[in-house]
Design a protein that fits this description.
It contains 12 helices and 12 strands. The chain is globular, with a radius of gyration of 22 Å. The relative contact order is 0.11. Among the domains are: 189-233, 5' to 3' exonuclease, C-terminal subdomain (DNA polymerase, domain 1), CATH 1.10.150; 250-348, 2-Layer Sandwich (Dna Ligase, domain 1). The protein starts with 11 loop residues before the first strand and ends in a 17-residue tail after the last strand. It has a 5-stranded mixed beta sheet with strand order 5-6-1-7-8. The chain has a 4-stranded antiparallel beta sheet with strand order 9-12-10-11, with helices on one face. It has a 3-stranded mixed beta sheet with strand order 3-2-4. The chain has 365 residues and is of the alpha+beta class. The protein has helices spanning 20-28, 54-57, 67-73, 84-98, 127-142, 154-161, 174-183, 194-202, 208-212, 216-233, 264-284, 317-329; strands spanning 12-17, 37-40, 49-52, 78-80, 105-109, 112-116, 146-151, 169-171, 250-261, 289-298, 303-314, 338-348. Helix 4 runs antiparallel to helix 5 and helix 11 runs antiparallel to helix 12 (317-329). Strand 2 and strand 3 form a beta hairpin. The longest helix is centred in the last third of the chain and has 21 residues, at 264-284. The chain binds magnesium ion. Residues 16-17, 20, 111-112 line the site of magnesium ion.
């Protein structure tokens, strides 16, 4: 692992609560303890699983799956609606626990955050000891468990926190960093989604070790700008800082329909409504974006996104609606019914606005 001269190696912790919503429900409702529990929408109302308890996961129930599918997999599961107010309260409490050790906290969601503890407030020094203390405080004060990943950068810390769930603590230090990354399947690499992973596999790239064989020029040729990032992280270099105030990266709106839409006319009418919302939000926050992204979820839960970028930032309703519609027409929506449409504007030209809400992102939704 290369190190910049004169700069201390960073100590990064990624904390992730275990089966967060489901664990809060089991804590508050002892009758759910030890039982397969699904927090999310009802199976008979096109609901989606937000979080499943570990007992339900044994049956294959996963987040973002339809509740109907979850019920098929685990017929005796208990379904409950999410109580976001309760989760936010817990989230604020864990944020307060983190704040005892560092002010460099970057929340990713209600139950997940990066902490930079290169210099911790209490002078503990050991990132592993800090992670242990945080886990213990979460257990003592909230009666919940979290998993922690400790490493020298965000990329590895985040993967590490997922390795020994629940109630895990995984440390990937400088000496094990290279071998750890070499063994990682490409899907685990930051920013590698299904499409990129498939492309990598077609090129015979299955692990970090395979990616490491490519020169910067080769990897950039295949994967563009992202290639340079992969080139670095596969060598353990991830300079992304823990950002205490995450900038707003996008503004969007989406709608799930009570029934599947199959006519283009209906879909375009819905896009007009969604575009109006997005436009209002952009104007309200004085943002102009260069990239417009359309999201389509089909009735079979397949999801696609299509984007178009412009040289200058924009916030006008007409362009947003027209772009979304032309992106829609270029998909195969006419062959498959659609259950959800969404529009996002990103790549802002105006100065970023700072975080307001506890979720770490400006709360526009
Ligand atoms: Mg979690």
């Amino acid at each position: 692992m290369e190190e910049k001269q004169g700069q201390p190696r960073r100590k990064i912790i990624h904390i992730d609560m275990d089966a967060f919503y489901a664990s809060v429900e089991q804590r508050d409702n002892p009758e759910y303890c030890g039982k397969p529990l699904v927090v999310g929408g009802a199976p008979d109302a096109r609901g989606v699983v937000a979080t499943a308890s570990y007992e339900a996961r044994k049956f294959g129930v996963r987040s973002a799956m339809s509740s109907r599918r979850a019920l098929q997999l685990c017929p005796h599961a208990i379904f409950v609606r999410p109580r976001f107010a309760a989760y936010k309260e817990v989230s604020q409490h864990i944020r307060e626990i983190f704040g005892r050790y560092t002010d460099l906290i970057e929340p990713l969601s209600l139950d997940e955050a990066y902490l930079d503890v290169t210099e911790d407030k209490l002078g503990i020094g050991s990132a592993i000891d800090i992670a242990k203390a945080i886990k213990q405080a979460i257990k003592d004060e909230l009666d919940l468990t979290a998993s922690a990943g400790v490493s020298v950068n965000k990329f590895v810390a985040k993967i590490a926190s997922d390795m020994e769930k629940p109630d895990g603590l995984t440390f990937i230090g400088p000496s094990s960093l290279a071998s750890f990354i070499e063994k990682l399947p490409v899907e685990k690499f930051w920013g590698v989604g299904k499409v990129t992973a498939d492309k990598m596999k077609k090129l015979g790239l299955f692990t970090g070790a395979d990616l490491k064989q490519l020169s910067l020029e080769q990897i950039t040729r295949h994967f563009g700008k992202a290639g340079a990032f992969y080139y670095n992280i596969v060598r353990g270099i991830d300079e992304r800082e823990v950002q205490p105030h995450r900038e707003t990266k996008s503004v969007g709106a989406e709608d799930t329909f009570p029934y599947d839409l199959s006519s283009l006319e209906e879909m375009e009418a819905e896009l007009d409504k969604i575009a109006l919302l997005v436009h209002q939000r952009l104007v309200k926050h004085q943002l102009k974006g260069r990239t417009i992204t359309l999201k389509v979820k089909y009735s079979d839960f397949r999801q696609i996104t299509r984007s178009q970028s412009y040289p200058d930032g924009l916030d006008d309703l007409q362009t947003i609606a027209a772009t979304a519609k032309s992106l829609l027409r270029a998909t195969d929506v006419e062959e498959s019914p659609v259950r959800l449409l969404g529009i996002t504007v990103s790549n802002f030209t105006t100065p970023e606005i700072r975080e307001k809400g506890p979720s770490g992102q400006l709360e526009l939704f």
